[in-house]
Design brief:
Rossmann fold, five-stranded mixed sheet, alpha/beta, 230 residues, 14% strand, two-stranded parallel sheet, 50% helix
């Protein structure tokens, strides 16, 4: 996820730095981010950034001390994220926004040991982040509205489609919609309303056929609206 997120930010004109404790891994991730950015430009999904910059670093404390925004994408482990944010909160200036890319963990719980929870939120980039327009901005119980608005403005400048999730709930927004469909499909089979094969056929031969067309039209509209100001 990290190289894709870095590519998004860099294409938006942000000077992006990718962090890893291993220098070789950090350099490989930065190279991959550059390749992903080039692929997006070649596909006509982004304008070339004249000052495209992707750096890499291995000293987290020094990086955090000079960053305006930090987006974390470590494993989905609450204790790991909680400890990392506690460390970032201690070394980053109070003005630095701290974001996690979690798709399911509570941002309130992640920020529970931090002294400045008002500058902490979720930015859930959908995978692959350099291609999927959606980013869910989920607020914790103590996230300041101005923090969310600042991140939303940045993502819009990077030609993403940010949505605000006002309450810290499992699944946020997009995954809850997906899981609602899955739950109902399972319920239909469990109640004996239809067999698995027919539920699958109904999805693929019915509304499923409309989804690619609808998505394609929406993406074209979105890209046209963002292309006016390269």
């Amino acid at each position: 996820m990290a190289p894709g997120i870095e590519a998004v930010l860099a294409l938006g004109g942000v000077r992006a730095t990718i962090f890893s404790r291993d220098p070789a891994n950090a350099e490989r991730a930065a190279d991959r981010a550059l390749r992903l950015a080039a692929e997006v430009v070649t596909a006509g999904l982004a304008h070339p950034a004249p000052d495209l910059q992707i750096d890499f670093a291995t000293d987290l404390d020094s990086l955090a001390a000079s960053a305006d925004l930090i987006v974390e994408s470590v494993y989905e482990d609450l204790e790991l994220k909680r400890s990392l944010f506690q460390r970032l909160d201690a070394v980053a200036p109070p003005s630095t926004i701290l974001a996690t890319n979690t798709s399911g963990l509570s941002i309130t719980a992640i920020a529970s040991r931090c002294k400045h929870p008002e500058r902490i939120l979720t930015t859930h980039f959908w995978n692959p982040p350099h291609l999927m327009p959606l980013v869910e901005i989920a607020l914790g119980e103590k996230t300041a509205p101005e923090t969310a608005e600042a991140v939303r403005a940045l993502l819009l400048a990077c030609r993403k489609v940010p949505v605000i999730v006002k309450k810290d709930r499992r699944g946020q927004l997009g995954n809850r919609l997906q899981m609602a469909l899955l739950r109902e499909a399972l319920n239909i089979v469990a109640e004996g309303i239809a067999d698995v094969e027919d539920v699958d056929l109904a999805a693929r031969a019915g509304f499923g056929l409309r989804l690619p067309s609808t998505a394609s039209s929406s993406i074209r509209t979105w890209w046209a609206s963002t292309s006016a100001s390269p």
